[in-house]
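Risk mitigation, structural track. In case the binding assays with S-adenosylmethionine fail to produce interpretable data, a predicted complex structure has been prepared as a fallback.
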Amino acid sequence: MTARKSKQRGATPRFGGDWTTCKLNVLGGYLRSYTTALRDKPTATKPFRKAYIDAFAGTGYRDERSDESRVFSPENLLLPDLAGPEPASLLDGSARIALQTEPGFDKYIFIERSPGRCAGLAGLKDEFSLLADAIDIREGDANDHIREICAKDWSAHRAVLFLDPYGMQVEWTTIEAIAKTEAIDLWLLFPLGIGVNRMLTRSGDIPESWRRRLDLLLGTQTWYDEFYAVEHTQTLFGDSDRVVKATMATIGRYFNNRLGQIFSGVAKEPGVLRNSANNPLYLLCFAAGNERGSEIGLRIANHLLKEMR
Ligand SMILES: C[S@@+](CC[C@H](N)C(=O)[O-])C[C@H]1O[C@@H](n2cnc3c(N)ncnc32)[C@H](O)[C@@H]1O
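Fallback model:
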């Protein structure tokens, strides 16, 4: 199929930089290996129906430019749509990368909250006309749609699910629902530097709305004790207490360990996506859903993550 570059309907988000290329290269590499591995399964075994699920799908195109300071204000982390529409780019985003993957998937589910971006996704049905019937676009909140999709019978299905939010939109209960299917391999951008680390203030005083968002993302209220310690020192002038905040490495390890508790396996060294000033923005985490497939899934994911280091 030829990937004709046409002007899409709906605006393309301004969101990019080298780390965008990195995450999409890893995703594209995994999708190719995944569909190849499932195609090459022994013919005696009944084939699974394979889906690609993109829960923050965008328009199908991406923008190369990066401007983290504008996109990632604390308000945008909580109200991501403030990131706003931006001029179109002709570089492939995750949805188009999935549609170009060979061998293909049986179904492509694109979830997107913005109606304008859904219109852009609908344009992909014309462009990839042979796959039009396999493309299912769902407008609305990613958490709601994923929980509904995961509640179905997954025994004859397998999927790769990509969670690529701008900020703090993913909820832990959604991740739990994905793990429970035991059929879905998950690639997830964990908003380490742009979200979690910014909300964990140095003083330890955290606004209530930020606490609630951290509770939802991390799925527990015990994170405070994990991320803050009180250092007690005795000096010549008396005792003093100092709040010490966890490093980003500790925060990332904590989240990856939590993923490891509910999935068959996780990549032990998630990718670190950094901005142009070399500051970590996201962790690119991988979790394998099915126990029997986890060894090969992890081998492929670890290889791809190593290549991006
Ligand atoms: C980082 S962009 C996705 C980029 C896309 N994966 C790509 O490679 O082209 C995040 C997208 O998620 C959408 N979004 C934000 N909050 C959402 C939510 N709660 N549910 C679904 N989509 C959401 C935004 O409109 C935006 O298009």
